[in-house]
Amino acid sequence: MSLQTWKKIQKIFPFIGLVIVMILFSFMCGDKLWAKRNLINIVNNTIPLAIGASGMVFVASQGSTDMSMGSLLAVAGTLGGIASLQYGVIGFVVVSVGVGIFFGLVMGILLAYFKVNSLMITLAMLIALRAVVSYITNGQALLLDYNIIAMNKLSTKLPIIIIILALMWYLFSYTKIGFFSRCIGENEEVGRFSGINVKKYKILAFMLSGAMAGVAGILAVIKIGGVSPTIGNFFELQVMTAMFVGGIPIAGGAESKFYKVISGSFILVILQNGLTIARVGSEISELIQGVILILVVYLNIYIECKFTEAQMNTKEEIN
Amino acid sequence: MSETCLFEAKDIKKYFGVTHANENVNLKINRGHIRGLIGENGSGKSTLISIIAGIQPCDEGQMYLHGIKYSPINPLSARENKIGTVVQELGLVDGLPVGMNLFMGKTERFKKHGLLDTKNLFNEAEKLLTSWGFPDIHSRTLTENLSVEEKKIVELVRALSIDPELLILDEITQALSLNYRKKLIDIIIQLKKNGKSILLVTHDIEEMVAITDGITIMRDGEIVAERESEKTTPDEIKKLMVGRAMEGGYYRVDNNASYDKSKIVLEGVNLTSQKFQNISFELYKGEILGFTGLSDSGIHELAEAMFAIRPTSSGFIRLPQKNNVVIKTPQQAMQLSIGYVPKDRDKQALMVHDSILNNISLAGIEMTKKKFGFLSPSKRVEITQKAIDSFSIKTNGPNQQLSGLSGGNRQKVNLSRWVIQDKEILILDCPTRGVDIGVKSYIYKTMIAAKKDGISMILITDELPEVIGMCDILNIVKDGEIVKTIKRGPDLSEEAIIEVMV
Fold first, then answer.
1. Alpha-carbon distance B100 to B93, whole Å?
2. What ipTM was assigned to the predicted interfaces of this complex?
3. Nearest Cβ partner for B330 among A175, A195, A314
4. A187 to chain B: nearest residue by CA?
5. Based on CB atoms within 10 Å of each CB, which residue in A59, A162, B292, B344 is the most buried?
6. What is the reported pTM?
7. So what CATH class is B5-242?
8. CATH class of segment(s) B249-337+423-502
9. Which residue, among A178, A71, A64, A186, has the nearest Cα to A115 in the 3D structure?
10. Would an 8 Å CB–CB cutoff place B354 in contact with chain A?
11. Distance between CA atoms of A69 and A309, rounded to whole angstroms?
12. Are B406 and A318 inside 8 Å of each other by CB?
């Protein structure tokens, strides 16, 4: 196949995945998948993933890893929840997002100035912050005011979420922070020699990721109506799966695109949702998810290889 | 077949898809001869070498060694036939010590009770390096800590370690500084005396004519001519390579320094770091200011310091035309109309796996910026197209990945992205390294045109013909200090430079 064809396939790959899961489960689950209640369910489940991934993609596109999101979400949500008891909705939002940004800043500084590997920093943060949550809540659940819980209505949430996602999309695709993040992922040394303040953009990426962990924290807390020490467990892995299924390269770089974040989130949620409706047991469901993840990553690499091959051939032609 | 013929290739053909990388190539190398192989980028030299070295098979044709049919199935069998090769791309494992790399695949003889006798191995490696005249490189050093040229030397010694009948060197000299280059030439001549043969590929035509016995010229996958080195001139070789006459020399024609003496645009004051001390200089409007020296003399580090990428312990760079503002960060330098072409194109300057569009936008980011930090995609396409057009970059469009471009075209991308921005000052670190003469002459023409437009340039390179051909004022750097400054004119000669440089 020619260069152009492979390029097109590479571009629409995330959508192919989405279409495949939709067709597959339409057959397996029939109308149940497309029932209004289930669609709302799908959107509800996609929202936190898409929010988390829209922040994490800045870090991932730089070639770094953010493992901390699950625990950071819990700390941000918990502290925000406690603040909401006294300061209401505004206190809730400000504290949650603020806590997320603060810890993002700390991790970013550790990464940029002390050159600690991002996986190590965020893994340590994942463990430490989970302990902080347990300490604050004392292992108990905490109930929130009714007006906080009322925010969980989709009609209230959705417009705000769409605005946030649009903002992140804008930042990632059309401003310096997104462009420079992808450049750093391609080749950090080149970035430095081209006048990018690499340290600054590494820190900013973690702050954005942290901010989105804060927003995800709000969503998680209002969903269960209170604070619990186990919220956000394994959330970071879900978000990463969504990104990789969507086609964000593990090493970061130019092929990190925002639409992949969104379609990846939908693919993962529809997959989980479809398997549940089709009454596949949870153990089998997880097994299938794992297999599909490997398959997707393989296909991604396969297309990338074919693309490079096609390009090498055209290179010879140009020469 | 005569006694003196060591190696012969007959009617070699190699296709990549529809492209003929090699078409009916016939090559003969005599015993004790140095054969030069030359051609523009993409003319098929490297393909031919990889076939001889067993890296890839040819589609048609035969090769003979000592008159016996020779068809290597992999690099190992080429080595067993005593053909040693140093390829263009680095072929060392970074994570291993030098000694391990030297004896890779040949560790059998160091086995002791089933384990590797590393002490013995490192001692042998050390001996080997010393015997070829490189005692500065130590066998226990981790390979990744070596500079690019030291790595090349390790590869060279590895190729020499098999006591080759035929040694193939693919563009090795361009990675080497002057002092290592001299040593290499000594080694080549020594081998020749011992009756060994050498196949040498380099872009440096003068050097090739000087040391080879015969030169084979390739163009578009075919051998277009063969010449005896004694009876040819660099100019003739150039003509044969390009296939058309090159108009005159490609350097500047004037022999006097010319620039606006009333305007200093950039001033370096007492710049000092670990690699250089007390460097002071003034750059005038429309001047090409040269810095030359051996590659470990500190000139490349100095270039990095000028663009504020490398911190200095004392001293500063300031712009007298802009209220004497002192440059502290690369971002600031870019905003103050300074462009920088670093030495290592593929590692420092360009994102090889990204598009031309993104690579050009990276340097021209401020040009594409609109309100609210919006980076206009249409503006990005516009400046990229401008760069492609004005530098006639061979590509199928702005979205092509850079890895699909030849080295010369990549360097055009690298240079064009600064030139289209109308920067007032350009810092050029080895701008013509590893490009063929077509692109080289193009780059010189661009520099001359830019000079006429009043753009000031700092040219850092260890290629002496280049600094002599282009500079108004030349600073010669040795051990991190300026040892001599020569103004353009009769005094600016290769002899005068070498005298103080080495």
1. 9
2. 0.85
3. A195
4. B351
5. A59
6. 0.77
7. alpha beta
8. alpha beta
9. A64
10. yes
11. 37
12. yes
